[in-house]
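Page 47, continued from p. 46.
Same chain as before, 369 aa.
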Amino acid sequence: MTEQVTAYIGLGSNLGDRQRVIREALDVLGRHDQVDVTRVSEIRETRPLGPSAQPDYLNAAAEIQTTLTAETLLEVMMTTENILGRTRRGKWGPRTIDLDLLLFGSEIVHSPNLIVPHPQMHLRSFVLGSLCELDSALMHPLFGEPVAELARRLSGGDFALNPMVPQLVSIAGLIGVGKTTLMKRLATALDADTALEPYDTNPFLPGVYAGKHELALDSQLYFLLNRVDQLDPDALSPDKVSLTDYVFEKELIYARRLLDPDQLQLYERVYRLFSERVASPVLVIYLDDAPEQCLERIHQRNRSYEQSISLEFLESLHREYEQLFAGWKACPVLRLSASQVGLEDEAALAHVALQVKAYVASRDCAVFC
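Result:
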């Protein structure tokens, strides 16, 4: 007897009586003698992804029990779509009904006709939200992460891979958290380009840390102009992932801490002008650790101009970073504890690299894949 498997199917419709056709799809699937629809999430309305204008979708997810193979289940799903009048108009076209095999037990399938887990499910809040409703502890078998964690990374957004934009991955976090170390290790694992924060070349920074407040604006503008040059879309490789050990938005965090009101007013005007010229990341890695631990690393690496940094200053920056990423909507945010990616832990690094690859578009990826 074939073993029974728990699988999860995504359902979507944006043509006709959307709710009725989703219910009919569940009914057709449930009538198959080797498929038992056990649970269904709430139906939610979502905006369409992709470049074409089309009606909004209704989406849901269903948990099923089946003795079919993944490939045979896909055939049953496609037959169900045909029964309900699905017209195939390309990847991003509107459809009466769309059925996607999201998960098939703990199996990983990669064949010409089927990829499981679904290769885009980790980018879709409407998919992950429905799965969380059914089982928030459900594990993604490739990433080894629960769907609740994958959903948290999106902050309610839905994203699509786009190979036509720079594949920029920005690593953010406190001074001393290990951003540059992680960036260099990931660059090797991903064969990626890198852009470093210009700490060592900023002629004004030692004076700022020494208490020369009059140099603060010069220092911030030096950082800003360097980042604008580094993040110019034309300066980033079209064929490789680009890694930075900062996120551009950190500039305002530091400026608001270091500049007086008159300096800040001028700086913000310049910032607004240049911020429109930089590439946006497709993924942010927020590397987090206790400010006390970061201060200890700062002391250990013994850069003379950093030794006056106080715990109070790091704690205030930490609060600002938490606030920044609590409301971040521009791209997925992969939040890591510094202890998760220790300097000698190759398995942990491979785990992170595997996930980063899933959030960047490959060279052969179709537009908006």
